[in-house]
Structure formats: structure tokens, C-alpha cells
Design goal:
The complex is a heterodimer of chains A (about 500) and B (about 325). Chain A is about 75% helix and about 0% strand. With about 500 residues, chain A is an all-alpha fold. Chain A has one domain. Chain A has a two-stranded antiparallel ribbon with strand order 1-2. In chain A, helix 4 runs antiparallel to helix 14, helix 12 packs antiparallel against helix 13 and helix 12 packs parallel to helix 14. The longest helix of chain A is centred in the first third of the chain and has 35 residues. Chain B is an alpha/beta fold. Chain B has 2 domains: about 190 residues, D-Maltodextrin-Binding Protein, domain 2, CATH 3.40.190.150; about 110 residues, D-Maltodextrin-Binding Protein, domain 2. Helix content of chain B is about 40%, strand content about 20%. In chain B, strand 1, helix 2 and strand 2 form a beta-alpha-beta unit. Classes of the chains: A mainly alpha (about 500), B alpha/beta (about 325). Chains A and B meet through helix 3, strand 1, helix 15, helix 16 and helix 18 of A and helix 1, helix 2, strand 2, helix 3 and strand 7 of B.
């Protein structure tokens, strides 16, 4: 069989001392940058790409892949232990991971996260291995209007997670979209809403905004309880490794979240943070006890972590099969491939199947290495909780600022981080949902870009309704919106804040 | 990410440079050099700069840190480079977006705020259509475009090179296409595979495999000679369209960069472009070596500026009331 031959060719490329070493090194580096708030896998990969110029193709790719897989997983550690997402992709992991850890079960919370990451990632790699070319040909057919409608649907799905008043959630989402508008017009590049201030001409860097909203603000909150003692806890392998029954109970959630992550990964520009937020919200909607979400339930952690790791496999689908990167990591990997004279795309599958299947297998292998390392690291990681907050906050704060600076080498991005830390601190105190704010910041610009691209190709808005995919997603969005309004009305959640 | 490299490079540089300090004050460079790339890491501009930096390090025996300053169509990076101390330790690696962004109003200054050092290489373009489209040759496409002005969809990246190429083609042939704001090269190919656009003109390497397997049809290439990568595809000129177009990658310094440093770098660029290993690396990135002397580079930029201005005027990007 062809596939078997290709797999063997891939394996023989991968099972060599150097590629294996690179997988181990890459996974460790990835986990470390993932754990540290402010540093992300994207940054680590950007540093690693020039290093791969001097390596052979397979070890170089193995390094990038392992950093990616490790980095996507490491983020859950700080999310669970400190309520600070180690990478923006683990924002939704904070919601239930931290409450579970705070009530004295950090081992269990981390264990669920690691298992879900492993399974979610594994799911997406199987999709990548078995269906990539087919899936990619379908993805190419999505029009600008289709993507716009999918993004609108995602917005509605996440808007619903916000607790408190719907009005405040809408305000937060709207402010988020306004923040996303500042800077260069996505079509023409002309600066807008900068009030003539040239520092704003690049807009607010998305990474700075996210780190500010979720890490900086949490550090501010922590400063209030700098002397608080952590609850007693006990971490051992018995409570780290989830019970079979518990995992089996969540199989539907695991499958759904992995699927959401994989699909979102394939769609250009949307990204892992959105995927985990959507998966989290869908898990909540499907749950028999949605009111328990946010208090430390396992399904919240599982949904978020399965989805964000599944994005890694999904994001590789358009890159490998068509040579078209849809996210920064894929763009970096593309440059790593091209410099080795390996232009990804249909031709690579026929000319160099060994490297393509080696690439798939490297993901699967890195996933296993990540899994065992994380399980082994959980105990030492949990010790972070014992470190006094006054020793922990200053270095994390510095690392956040460092992370904000290095992606674009602009001091402005650090000030953006600080400003959004303050915004989030006061917004949360007043009951405005940060989830809604973030979805405005991330999805607003994507929706605008796709809509305007679509309009430049069409004379009217009509394709929004005549394209079947677009129409279906808009209809889903409407139904979800109507359902959540109905639920609110039934539960008596106020549309407007109650006047006191 | 890059900062780490800069720091490491600074430390290493200091170690290497320390003994020779004071001995020869004129021995430029004595410390690490910053090469600014106006786009995010991973794109073709970024990778080409890193390849160039790798060979420049060998030529100059100095360390070079590639620094990405993305945002606002590259204007933040260009401003930073233009304002930098003209001591030869800050340089800029830029494509014609430096000029087009000025003509579209996205940027308030243009190439003359910097010191052009050397034209290093070029990206050529290939005009492609989908295999299911009716056009077999450029002549057929242009004839159809004339018959149905503003209806055939050409994928462009508004305000950037791809857009100006379409404008230039329209200017020369008297046609008018519908410009679809489709993004960069890879996004254009995706839109074409999904048949959202009819015509696109990405870099040759991006479409080679699709032309080879027959999914896309190349109608012409934009250089003055045929491309080695697409030897069977005639140039625009061969098909009677008097139009050439390419992206020039130019190395710039801050304004008032001393002549001897400009000379040093001009020589470095010339040697790199003559180095077969570098040329091979460039080829993988679709870059065609095209070194020009300091004077020729300046002349080329002047000419490019005039051409792009004309295209912008024709495309209505610059209102005629400004005359």
C-alpha cells in the first residue's frame, strides 16, 4: 500500500538520533515558553526558524513541531495554577482550572488538562494524517462571505459565555471591536482612529492586548492578596491521572471540542484562543449542569485544552496540502520548509512523501513526548503555588512586558499591555465580561476583513444569503442568539443591569 | 524573540570586538548591526533578510541581528530606520511598499527619507488564471477585459505591489479589471483555487506546482526575460504588452548615512549576489539576484517612484485635484 510505504519512509527519516533529540529539546522549550506568561510558542518558533537553516529538513521540522506542540500545552499550567493563561490559547482553561486548583486539587486540574491536550492534539493529527488533502480542498471553497458568517457565528457562541447582564456583555464586545479597528485599515493600510498619533498607526498589538487583559490584570488582583496562604494540597500520580470513568463520561465533550479545534485551525486567522473559548461555551451549553461551569468542573478544562491542541493539527492542513499558511506559526514553518527547497502543496505529497509523512509522524511523536513530560512535570509545577506571591508577581510581570516588546520591538506594545491590564482590572470589578471584550478584539477585525474582501468581489451583500454555507452559519448564529435570549428570559437574567 | 538574538549578539559582539577597540577607529563595524525588516517573522521579506544577513555576517565578520518591526504597511519600521543614528549600525531591508504606501496615503514619507544603498534582488510575478477559465493566452484575457470593463476579477493587495501591478497593466493596455482585495501571494492562490478571483499575479515560486499539475494556467511573466522557473511561459513583452513589473528588494540606511559606509555595504551586497551559495538560497525564495550600484539604485528608485505615481493617479488613488 502506498500510505504504508510513505509512513515507513517518514518513520525512517524521523527515527534518527538528531530528529529525536530535536523533538525532546523542542518539547521542553515549548513547554517552558508555554508556561511563562508573555512568551509564546510563536516567539520560540520565530527564534528557532533561522537555526533550522543550518540543519537537515527533518530535524529542523521536528524542532519547530515539538516547540509548537509543547507550547500549546504548557499554557495550561499557569492558567490552572495562577489564573494567568501561559499563552492566549489557554484563556478558557483559567475559568475552571483555577477554581479546581484553588480548592486544593491542582493535580487533578492539571491532569485533566494534560489528558485533554493529548487527546485533542491526537485527534487533529489523525485528521491531518488521513484526510488532509480532502479537507483542504473543501476549505479552499469557502468564500470570503462564508468565512465572515462563520466568524459571526463564533462571536455569538462566545458572547453567550459571559456571565452577568447581556447588555454589559454586548458593550464589552463592542468596545473590543472598537479596539480592534484602531490602526491600519485591513484593506488599504491607511491608519485610522489614531487621532493623529503616529504610535497608534500600527494599532493595538493583539498579543499585548491579550496578555494585558488576562495576565496583567490578574497580577493586579493578586497584589491585593499578596500574603494569602495557599490551601493545603497533595499532588500524586493517583490524583493526576484521571479515572477512566471520568474520561469516558466526557467522551462527547472531548470529541466535540477536538472537532471544533481542528476546524477552527483550518480556517485562516481565527486561532487557538477563539477555538478554546468556543469549545468551552459549547461544553457549557451541552452540559446538564451549565451553572457549575466556572466553579471548577472537569468539562471546562477538557473542552478548552482539547480544542486548543486540536488547532495545531488543523492549522497544518492548508499549509501542507496547499502551501498556504493560515496563522503565524504556519507562516514560520513555511519559511522553514521553503529554505530546504520543500515548497509544500500537492507536489510535495507526490515528490517527497517521506518528508510529508515524517512531518505528520513528528506531530504524533511530539504529542506523546509532551504527554509524558507534562505528567512528570506536574508535581514540580504545582510547587509554584507554594512560592509566596510577592516573589512570583515581579518576575512574571517583567516577562509579560518582555513578551509584549519582543514580537514587534516597539515600546508602545508594552504600554498597551499596561493600559489593558488596568482596563481589565476595572472592567472585571464592574461586571463586564473579558471574554466578550476579547472576542471583539480578535474576531472583529477578521469579520471586517472578510466582509470587505467579499464586497470588493461582489456588488452586494446578497452572497451572504445565497451562499449555502454562509446562510447556514448565519442561521445557526440567529438560533443561538434567540435561544440564549430565551434562556435568559426563562432564568430571569436581566437584559439590562438591575438598578440598585 | 529577535531581541534575545540581539542581546546574545551584543554580548558575543562585545567579546569579539573588545580587543580591537581603539586600535583602529575606522574599522567599521565594531559592534553588532541591526537589520530592520518591516514585516513579521516568517514572510518572504523576513526570510530573505535572514539569508542576506547570514552571508553579510561572513563578508563583514560582524554579527547582524534581524529585527522585525511589523505594522502599518511597514511604515513604523521605515520611520524607525529613517530616524536612526546614521552610523551604519541600523539598516533597513524593504520592498516597493515603501513607495506605494506613500502614494496611497498610508505613509507620510517615502524612499528619499532614507539613504538607498543597493538594489539586491528581485521578485518576479507570473500572471495566472484557473484551468477552468476561458482564457488561454494573455491576448484573449486582455481582449475580454476590454469588452467587459470592470468585470473580470483581479486579486490584488490594495495599496501594495500586487495592486500597482494591476494598475500598471491597465494603464499600459487600456483595460479595466475589478480589483478584489484578496491579500498577499498565498491568499491570492487560495482565492483562485476557490474561484473567487479570475486573475492573480503572485511570485513565480508560489504557483509553480499548480502550473505544473495543470490546476492553474500561467499566461505570462513580468520580467524582461523569461524566468528559469517557467521557461515555457512568454513574458508580457513577448506577447506585445509593453509592461514589466517586479519587486525590488533594496537595502537602505538612515538619512545622511556617510558615503564610506554606503560604499562598504554596496560592496558587501555585490559580493553576496556573486556568491553561488547565496544565489542558490535566493532561488529557493523566488529571489532573482539583481545588484545595482549606488547611483543605479537611486536612479531605479526615482523611475519606480514616477511609474508608481502614474499608476496611482490612473487608479484614482491620488485625486487629480492635487495637481
Amino acid at each position: 500500500m502506498d500510505i504504508l510505504q510513505h509512513l515507513t519512509a517518514g518513520l525512517s527519516l524521523l527515527i534518527q538520533p538528531l530528529p529525536l533529540l530535536m523533538i525532546v529539546v523542542g518539547t521542553i522549550v515549548g513547554i517552558v515558553v508555554g508556561v511563562i506568561p508573555g512568551l509564546t510558542a510563536t516567539m520560540a518558533i520565530a527564534i528557532a526558524v533561522p537555526m533550522t537553516f543550518v540543519m537537515d529538513a527533518m530535524p529542523g521540522l521536528a524542532l519547530l513541531i515539538a516547540v509548537y506542540v509543547g507550547g500549546m500545552t504548557g499554557g495550561l499550567v499557569s492558567a490552572v495554577l495562577l489564573r494567568i493563561p501561559g499563552t492566549p490559547a489557554s484563556i478558557a482553561t483559567c475559568f475552571d482550572g483555577y477554581p479546581m486548583a484553588a480548592r486544593g486539587e491542582p493535580g487533578r486540574a492539571l491532569g485533566y488538562g494534560v489528558f485533554a491536550s493529548f487527546l485533542g492534539g491526537g485527534f487533529s493529527y489523525i485528521v491531518l494524517l488521513t484526510m488532509a488533502p480532502m479537507v483542504a480542498m473543501q476549505a479552499v471553497k469557502l468564500t470570503y462571505f462564508d468565512i465572515f458568517s462563520i466568524v459571526m457565528c463564533a462571536m455569538v457562541m462566545i458572547a453567550d459565555t459571559s456571565q452577568g447582564s447581556l447588555l454589559k456583555a454586548l458593550i464589552a464586545g463592542f468596545v473590543g471591536m472598537l479596539i480592534g479597528i484602531v490602526g491600519p485599515d485591513p484593506i488599504s493600510g491607511v491608519a485610522r482612529l489614531t487621532f493623529g498619533w503616529s504610535e497608534l498607526s500600527g494599532g493595538f498589538a493583539e498579543s499585548s492586548v491579550l496578555i494585558g487583559l488576562f495576565a496583567m490584570s490578574q497580577l493586579l488582583v493578586e497584589m491585593h492578596k499578596v500574603n494569602a496562604r495557599c490551601p493545603d494540597f497533595n499532588v500524586n500520580y493517583r490524583n493526576i491521572i484521571p479515572k477512566w470513568r471520568d474520561l469516558l463520561e466526557s467522551w462527547g465533550n472531548l470529541l466535540r471540542s477536538s472537532l471544533i479545534g481542528t476546524v477552527i485551525g483550518i480556517i485562516p486567522g481565527v486561532g487557538a484562543s477563539t477555538a478554546s473559548l468556543i469549545a468551552y461555551n459549547q461544553a457549557k451549553l451541552a452540559s446538564r449542569e451549565p451553572e457549575k461551569f466556572g466553579t471548577g468542573v472537569k468539562d471546562g478544562i477538557i473542552a478548552s485544552e482539547a480544542a486548543n491542541n486540536a488547532v495545531t493539527g488543523g492549522a497544518m492542513v492548508p499549509l501542507l496540502t496547499l502551501g498556504l499558511p493560515g496563522c503565524p506559526v504556519a507562516a514560520l514553518m513555511l519559511s522553514g520548509l521553503i529554505i530546504k527547497d520543500l515548497q509544500p502543496g500537492p507536489a510535495l505529497f507526490s515528490n517527497n512523501p517521506g518528508i510529508v509523512y515524517g512531518f505528520f509522524l513528528a506531530f504524533i511523536l511530539a504529542n506523546f513526548v509532551m504527554f509524558f513530560m507534562m505528567i512528570a512535570f506536574i508535581k514540580p509545577f504545582a510547587m509554584v503555588l507554594k512560592v509566596p506571591k510577592y516573589l512570583l508577581i515581579p518576575p512574571i510581570l517583567s516577562l509579560c512586558a518582555f513578551g509584549a516588546y519582543i514580537s514587534n520591538n516597539r515600546m508602545m506594545d508594552v504600554w498597551v499591555l499596561v493600559a489593558f491590564g488596568l482596563v481589565a482590572y476595572f472592567a472585571e470589578k464592574n461586571g463586564y465580561s473579558l471574554g466578550s471584550l476579547v472576542l471583539g478584539v480578535i474576531l472583529g477585525p477578521i469579520a471586517e476583513l472578510q466582509l470587505r474582501r467579499g464586497l470588493s468581489a461582489s456588488d452586494s451583500f446578497l452572497p451572504l444569503l445565497t451562499s449555502p454555507i454562509s446562510a447556514i452559519f448565519l442561521a445557526i448564529a440567529l438560533v443561538i442568539l434567540a435561544l440564549s435570549l430565551y434562556h435568559d428570559w426563562r432564568r430571569g437574567r436581566p437584559i439590562a443591569p438591575a438598578t440598585s | 524573540m529577535i531581541r534575545i538574538k540581539t542581546t546574545v549578539a551584543c554580548l558575543l559582539g562585545a567579546l569579539v570586538a573588545a580587543p580591537s577597540y581603539g586600535l583602529a577607529a575606522d574599522a567599521y563595524p565594531t559592534k553588532p548591526i541591526k537589520l530592520i525588516v518591516p514585516f513579521a517573522a516568517g514572510g518572504s521579506s523576513d526570510v530573505s533578510a535572514r539569508v542576506f544577513a547570514k552571508y553579510a555576517e561572513q563578508e563583514l565578520k560582524a554579527s547582524i541581528a534581524v529585527v522585525n518591526i511589523a505594522g502599518a504597511a511597514g511604515s513604523i519600521a521605515s520611520r524607525e530606520a529613517a530616524k536612526a543614528k546614521p552610523d551604519g549600525y541600523t539598516l533597513l531591508w524593504h520592498i516597493p511598499t515603501l513607495i506605494t504606501a506613500y502614494h496611497t496615503g498610508a505613509q507620510k514619507f517615502t524612499w528619499d527619507s532614507l539613504t538607498p544603498i543597493a538594489n539586491v534582488a528581485r521578485f518576479y510575478k507570473a500572471l495566472v488564471v484557473h484551468k477552468d477559465s476561458p482564457w488561454k493566452t494573455m491576448g484573449e484575457l486582455l481582449k475580454d477585459a476590454k469588452a467587459r470593463p470592470g468585470q473580470i476579477k483581479w486579486g490584488v493587495n490594495i495599496g501594495a505591489g500586487l495592486h500597482f501591478e494591476a494598475l500598471g497593466m491597465e494603464d499600459v493596455t487600456g483595460t479595466r479589471f475589478r480589483h478584489v482585495a484578496g491579500g498577499g501571494d498565498a491568499e491570492q492562490v487560495k482565492a483562485m483555487l476557490g474561484k473567487q478571483i479570475d486573475v492573480a499575479s503572485p511570485s513565480d515560486t508560489v504557483i509553480l506546482q499548480y502550473v505544473a499539475d495543470g490546476t492553474l494556467r500561467a499566461l505570462g511573466t513580468s520580467g524582461d526575460k523569461r524566468l528559469a522557473s517557467l521557461p515555457d511561459i512568454p513574458t508580457y513583452k513577448e506577447q506585445g504588452v509593453d509592461f514589466t513589473f517586479w519587486y525590488d528588494i533594496v537595502l537602505y540606511g538612515p538619512s545622511n548615512l556617510p558615503a564610506e559606509i554606503v560604499k562598504t555595504w554596496s560592496d558587501v551586497a555585490r559580493k553576496i549576489v556573486a556568491n553561488p551559495a547565496a544565489v542558490e538560497d535566493f532561488r529557493k525564495l523566488a529571489m532573482h539576484p539583481a545588484w545595482l550600484s549606488i547611483g543605479d539604485t537611486r536612479e531605479l528608485l526615482l523611475k519606480t517612484d514616477v511609474d508608481l505615481y502614474r499608476f496611482a493617479r490612473r487608479g484614482g488613488l491620488i485625486p487629480s485635484s492635487l495637481d
